[in-house]
Amino acid sequence: MDxxxxxxxxxxxxxxxxxxxxxxxxxxxxxxxxxxxxxxxTARFPITLHVGVGTFKPxxxxxxxxxxxxxxWGTISAEIAGKINNRRKTGRTVxxxxxxxxxxxxxxxxxxLLQEFQGxxxxxxxxxxxxxAVDCLLTNFHFPKxxxxxxxxxxxxxxxxxxAYQEAIRLEYRFFSYGDAMLIV
Length: 185
Prior knowledge:
The protein is of the alpha+beta class and 185 residues long. The chain has six helices and six strands; from the N terminus they run ααββαβαββααβ. The longest helix has 13 residues, at 158-170.
């Protein structure tokens, strides 16, 4: 980490201390860009999941079911859960980053309704997981053999994500924390 990271490695929507790293998909947004997105009719709802050190822990087991997922602390207020549920009646939920996916999915009941949530989640999203809350995902290109990569492949499917990564390599996209992003719809 260098001195410029104190300003550069921070999202414009950050409000509460607690994460060990910025949720990197959020680094792609500026305040003017978020204003423009909202002006075009997209609602934005703040939720929190503090990125933990386990996010960077590689998967070292043979079977995904044997991987011990780290837990991270998150919160979604009852007010925000209600607003998201109402918005989902007429639109799609776009999660910005895998951390957002984890807290949204952790807080959603079996009927697909988002609930108030505050606490730890150790949800490891891997096949054959069925998404209940998230319809689209904006995310960076992640390390192979990481829980983030497994989540992205579970969301987008092996074939689509392999194709996206091959294209990103061919076009020399930047990967990882300061990398480029993809939108999976």
